[in-house]
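hey can u check if this looks right to u? its 663 residues, i copy pasted from the old doc so theres a chance i mangled smth
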Amino acid sequence: MKKETLHINGTSFEIYSFNTVVVGSGAAGLNAADRLYSFGQKDIAVVTEGLNMGTSLNTGSDKQTYYKLTLAGSTQDSVYEMAKTLYDGGSMHGDIALVEAALSAQSFYRLVDIGVPFPHNSFGEYIGYKTDHDPRQRATSAGPLTSKYMTEKLKQQVFQKGIGIFDGYQVIAILTDKEKTKSVGLLTLNNNALEDESKRFVIFNCTNIIYATGGPAGMYQMSVYPESQTGATGIAFEAGVKGKNLTESQYGIASIKFRWNLSGTYQQVIPRYVSTDKEGKDEKEFLDDYFSDTGKMLDAIFLKGYQWPFDPRKVCDFSSSLIDILVYNETVNKGRRVFLDFTKNPSRAVKDGKFDFSLLGEESYTYLKKSNALFGTPIDRLALMNQPAIDLYKNNGIDITEEYLEIAVCAQHNNGGLYGDIWWESNLKHLFPVGEVNGSHGVYRPGGSALNSGQVGSTRAAQFIAARYTEEPLKTDEFIDMTANQIYEKISFGAKLLKNMSDKNNIIQIRRQIGERMTRAGAHIRSGKAAEAAAKEAKKMLESLPDISKLSSVRDLPFAYQNRDLLITQYVYLSAIANYIEKGGGSRGSYLVYNKDGKLPIENLPEEFRFTLDGGRLEKEIQEVSFSDGECRFEWNEVKPIPESDDWFENVWNAYMRDEIIR
């Protein structure tokens, strides 16, 4: 590391030089730093907006899943079979699927070795269970807080190795060479010293950037992402990084007072779904209005447990995702509030004061019977099957043994993101998006595969950098000559805002408008007309942002820069959705696309829910988007097949010994 103080156009900057800077301190970012150090590259640092912020440390579910190769029992599995499962989700490159499968066991056992408490039996087998979009039983879990445990254990590794951490530094620009072919550094806002003009902006001159900033959480109103997670995808688009599969995100039912996925046993204990007016009055079990068959309603609730993400294939015939539609209809269209009630059984299931379990279908009944849970109320069943699920809410100020749990259909994960190759390097050389910000996933992905992908991708990026990109950063004079205009442009935005401060702060109001727009036009209920109109709104707001933003304090500056990033992100994402629909894309993944010639899930729903399934029509193509000069340009490319090679050991060994593998 080298530290200097420079003056550019009258502004003072601290500048730090490293071989590699890791941006982000979630499970993927921390693993990247840990792996880099282990592979021999020690001139590194972690730059993070907040060491205790982000999704990995602050999210989970009833039983948060990690997906990997089968590592127990007599069930056959192989790297190729797991790759095929990932690839068959649609719009996923086969070579990336093969890498994620091949490194899944290595990445999993690394986490085991550093202390993440994944369960094993007395013989040392790491047992698994079946998760969504999983033909085997590859899933495992360390409980509701799996990613939290991963992050904490990886953080210990980073601390033990003495890797430098810049905590409280918000990246506001990726700096590139003048041709925008490679990244050369970062401009950050030092949120620890905003009042001090000489320390407000800090520059990092670095050969490589591992970009682990997470999903674009801040652009949604209804979101199960933790409030501390915002994302920084827009500044990557601005730097020239391509987007990939941006249309593909996951949505599902979650609590909104404390943001948490309501999957697994939260649904399998079959709680009541209740709606009220805005004041909490006029209570109604609204599912009763749509399900004429009580047994089908109970089974649909149960199946939300492991069919948690909204899926348009599970909307018709009173299937589980119809519930997401009905929750959305109550909250968005009718303006009511919706709750889960664990204290009472659904009224229509009660006979002689008790739950009539004979109403259940075979799958639901068998599951509850094997769990010894054919008794009592939902909270009684939950206490037996998963007491930590109750404790989790109690630890966050909500006692679901006594009170209702308010819910909505929320954005949860982005399957798309930034472009990366099989070493997770983007089209902007020397920049490696890892974790959720990388768009490696396809349309459908097995539950828990995101955690595996984050560990695999960050390991691959570290391998490549340690083997191929070991050169020192640019000399300071050369770096400044290359980036001074970029730096000046970004700090000018903040300078203009600080000159026009007002008592009437509207930064949070602008953020709210961004969220409302995305939830309205770019979440799980979509139409081409709405997406196109919303994209134009986002672009107009982006262009006028310096003029309409009102700060009341320099402490508002980080939020203003976030709004700028989010508006770029939103414009690109909404444009991608509009482009997909214009190409003839239909309902797939975790979203429903309005089609006037389609059908309604059930006849007494509003017209906006009329849809047609895509039917896999575009699953062999991947949408890529470039953002330049304020406009989006799209390419549709065929997916790469899974590589099949008859590797002979001696040949691979010799290639490995000649250092021909990492290329």
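The chain has a mean pLDDT of 96.
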